[in-house]
Design brief:
alpha+beta, Thrombin, subunit H, Pdz3 Domain, six-stranded antiparallel beta barrel, 20 strands, 42% strand
């Protein structure tokens, strides 16, 4: 019995050591690359309030990725790194509708972190959150991917957008973690921590193809141009014969068409069941949002709708979305 317990204990220690080594390796590699941001915000009454968050170095020339809600409408601030270095930064661009922002340090920064690919994540996978919660610089917490495909509503003025494919994790997040890195065992950053949805429920904006487009636009132009159709709708199951024919189970029932908007001009009507856009399946609003970045503005977009038991092909030309500053 003693020998059995001894062998089991040794196995447990070995497993714990392997787990610990992964966490230690991530901490040593990523902590220097995640800055603590200090941002001064002017209140409506003219007073100035300080806010804090985190940011991840992602280029060799001083660009850092963070949350839009961390910098707000500020134009500059201070970034503090784990080695004690503090440098000023300026805000390059913010996009509240994705809750992402890019800032640039005015001074030397550590080597950049490597941005990974969130689409390869699996539920149960080990992740580590690196940030500066509650003003405590260089803090890491470990957990797992609790769920994938969550949605996070964001707002800018009157415009509302759903950020889809949000990562849910049980790695502890606290105020100040926002803008920090969510990291996998290889050391790649797969998400930008953005919100605490409840005890043991943290959310992170995924690093994926859409995120990369947004970040590239912020670096190049300081803003993200989005296309606009002028429709609103809800997911709706397709009639079984249509579902079998199209190979998809749901479409988007059009509940509202904005008068004189691009969709209205193209002949889209309330009650139409939108099933395809550019020959890609449309099952909800997010399916359209993926297509509505700057490159889509002014370019014909082929739509397929189900109306009066008939599939109809329409062509709409998206316009630029305004009023989200």
């Amino acid at each position: 019995m003693t020998d059995t317990l001894s062998r089991e204990s040794e196995a447990d220690v070995a497993a714990l050591d392997a787990y610990s080594q992964v966490i230690v390796s991530i901490a040593e590699h990523l902590t220097p690359r995640v800055a603590a941001l200090q941002v001064a915000r002017r209140r409506r009454d003219g007073s100035v309030a300080a806010s804090a968050g985190s940011a991840v170095v992602f280029t060799n020339d001083g660009f850092l990725l963070t949350n839009a809600h961390v910098v707000g409408k500020a134009e500059a601030g201070q970034a503090a790194f784990g080695d004690g270095t503090t440098v000023p930064f300026r805000v390059v661009g913010t996009d509240p509708l994705s809750d992402l922002a890019v800032v640039r340090a005015d001074g030397a920064t550590p080597a950049p972190a490597v941005l990974g690919e969130a689409s390869q994540l699996r539920v149960g996978q080990l992740v580590v959150a690196v940030g500066n919660p509650l003003g405590l610089a260089g803090t890491i917490t470990a957990g797992v991917v609790s769920a994938l495909g969550r949605s996070l509503p964001t707002r800018s003025g009157e415009n509302v957008r759903i950020v889809d494919d949000v990562i849910q994790t049980d790695a502890a997040l606290n105020p100040g973690n926002s803008g920090g890195a969510l990291v996998v065992a290889t050391g790649e950053v797969v998400g930008i921590n953005t919100a605490v949805a409840g005890v043991g429920v943290g959310l992170a904006i995924p690093i994926n193809a859409i995120t990369r487009q947004i970040v590239a636009a912020l670096v190049a132009e300081g803003r993200v141009r989005r296309a606009y159709l002028g429709v609103a709708g809800n997911p709706t199951p397709l009639p079984p014969p249509l579902a079998s024919r199209l190979g998809q189970k749901t479409g988007m029932r059009i509940e509202e068409v904005v008068a004189q908007g691009p969709a209205a001009k193209a002949g889209l009507r309330r009650g139409d069941l939108l099933v395809k856009a550019n020959n890609e399946a449309v099952s909800n609003a997010q399916s359209l949002q993926r297509l509505m970045l700057g490159d889509a503005i002014g370019q014909p977009l082929a739509l397929t709708v189900f109306r009066s038991e008939t599939l109809l092909d329409l062509v709409v030309t998206p316009e630029e979305l305004h009023g989200d500053e």
